[in-house]
Write a structure and sequence with these properties.
It holds the Pfam family HD_5. Keywords: Phosphoprotein. This protein is an alpha/beta fold. It is built from 19 helices and twelve strands. It has three domains: about 150 residues, 3-Layer(aba) Sandwich (Rossmann fold); about 130 residues, Beta-Lactamase, CATH 3.30.450; about 200 residues, Hypothetical protein af1432. About 50% of the residues lie in helices and about 15% in strands. The longest helix has about 40 residues. It is flat, with a radius of gyration of 27 Å.
Length: about 500
């Protein structure tokens, strides 16, 4: 979520309003450019107009694409300087430039030279239209569909990058073992995550005799506040900042305001600290969510400074938090992922899996759907059936989650990556993303699938009511040997009452 990352700023705004969508017209006929401009003169999508870029050859188009990485749609002619010029440009866009985001709409006036079924099969395009069929209405419909797809892909990419940055930043904070190092690491990571015009400062609370704090001592700082280290914040800072520090201290919670925020931390020894970030910060909704997630992660890390003997336990709380973030976006409860972890451990032990792996399963299985954080809300929480295109987007969460976790060297996160990639693989080979079958599916994925489906069926979702235990059992039996590993289902039936008791222990 670095502020310098252009991929997270695809919906940036200026003082005059949101930036227009960039659309590139590639055609050697000037009248095609004129007509396209005329048709889209008043076109708007999500309160954004269109900025047209024009190219009359594939070479000119390629140069524009190199200089404008945020082009959303290319309206591309096939026959220009050669009969294959447009198709050659498609390959250059996807392979040479590596641009998988831009939506390419092929427009041809000579369909016989580029038959639709052959072109769609051989080239990575998103739509194919004959110029003779493109009325103004059809062209507008095509544009809406292309921009909607581009927006969704950019949203997925922004969530992926944001989550990667939060995980990386959180890891940097977790690695610190002293209060000063902790404060410095938090300030440094927030600088990268959210951007700051003036800087940030970290205060310890001096509360003698258990009363009101006598002062907020500035223990660490960045930017303009660096000169105030060891000073009393109440004596050296503007009244508005001091008031925010006091508000956070009184409420014992993070305080977010229009141009700054204060994070409140309290450890197991009731030692309190405050972290001020500002001023004039400007976060998008996505960045705001990720900063909040990072702030909660920081709270966990702060407690770890004073709980070294319980370090593993505190790190595992972060695992549940990250898993819960994905589940919360899909309107599911954090207790769902906890129950999945506990049930995965129970099934692993019943199957005779090594005790160490069973324990790791308990903490890795909750991250099975972490990739859902990269799925747009309008798809993730859709109450009705998904379209084929939406199904394809939904299914990306398995590989997305695996990629996010696979780079870690921690055993729990590495196992979580394996689970994220395999918990939708069916025993009979009909699952995704790889179509694995039988024992080729990792045992961790087979166990987590049974645990996840069992618990999800018993929970209320945006698209269904909760099922009765009898109906769940019948479904698990029906899918034994199809969707589920028969051995895992058999162990579930053997421990049926224990599995049901988990919901009573950790209800939604």
């Amino acid at each position: 979520m670095s502020r310098s990352n252009d991929n997270l700023q695809f919906a940036a705004e200026t003082e005059q309003g949101p930036l227009p969508w960039k659309v590139l017209i590639v055609d050697d006929e000037p009248e095609v450019h004129d007509v396209t401009h005329l048709v889209f003169g008043h076109f708007r999508f999500e309160n954004r107009g269109i900025e047209f870029l024009s190219a009359h050859s594939s070479a000119e188009a390629l140069d524009l694409l190199r200089r404008h990485s945020d082009i959303a749609v290319v309206l591309l002619d096939v026959v220009m300087e050669s009969e294959q010029a447009g198709l050659d440009l498609v390959r250059a866009i996807r392979e040479e430039l590596g641009n998988t985001f831009v939506r390419i709409v092929l427009r041809t006036g000579q369909a016989g030279q580029a038959p639709e079924h052959e072109v769609i099969a051989a080239y990575d395009i998103n739509d194919y239209k004959e110029k003779t069929e493109l009325t103004a209405q059809k062209l507008a419909t095509t544009m809406y569909a292309a921009l909607r797809a581009y927006r969704d892909m950019r949203t997925i990419e922004a969530h992926r990058q944001g989550l990667e940055n939060v995980i990386r930043a959180s890891a940097q904070v977790f690695s610190r073992q002293t209060s000063h190092d902790f404060a410095s690491a938090v300030l440094a990571q927030l600088t990268d995550l959210a951007g700051m015009d003036r800087g940030a400062l970290y205060c310890t609370v001096d509360r003698r005799n258990g009363g009101q704090p006598e002062q907020f001592r500035i223990a660490a700082a960045t930017g303009e506040y660096r000169r105030l280290i060891n000073a009393n914040a109440a004596d050296r800072l503007p009244t508005a900042i001091v008031d925010s520090l006091r508000d956070a201290w009184h409420s014992k919670s993070h305080h977010f305001d229009r141009d700054h925020y204060v994070l409140h931390f309290i450890d197991s020894h009731q030692t309190e600290s405050l972290l001020f970030v500002g001023e004039s910060w400007n976060l998008s909704p996505l960045e705001y969510k990720l900063v909040e997630l990072f702030c909660t992660n920081v709270s966990i890390a702060f407690d770890n400074l004073h709980l070294n003997d319980e370090l593993l336990s505190s790190q595992l709380e972060m695992v549940y938090l990250l898993a819960g973030a994905a589940e919360t976006r899909s309107q599911e409860t954090a207790n769902h992922v906890r129950r999945v972890g506990m049930l995965a451990e129970l099934l692993g032990r019943a199957l005779g899996v090594a005790p160490e792996l069973c324990e790791t399963l308990r903490y890795a299985a909750p991250l099975h759907d972490i990739g859902k954080i990269g799925i747009p809300d309008q798809i993730l929480n859709k109450p009705g059936a998904h379209t084929p295109e939406e199904v394809a987007v939904m299914r990306t969460h398995a590989e997305l989650g695996a990629r996010l976790l696979a780079s870690s060297h921690r055993p729990i996160l590495r196992l979580a990556a394996e689970i994220a990639a395999s918990h939708h693989e069916n025993w009979d080979g009909s699952g995704y993303p790889q179509g694995l079958s039988g024992s080729a599916i990792p045992i961790s994925g087979r166990i987590t699938m049974v645990a996840d489906v069992f618990d999800a069926l018993g929970s209320k979702r945006c698209y269904k009511q909760s099922w009765s235990p009898e109906r769940i059992r019948a479904y698990m039996q029906e899918q034994r040997g199809r969707k589920f590993d028969p051995d895992v289902v058999d162990r579930l039936f053997e421990h049926w009452d224990e599995a049901l008791a988990l919901r009573e222990k950790l209800p939604d």
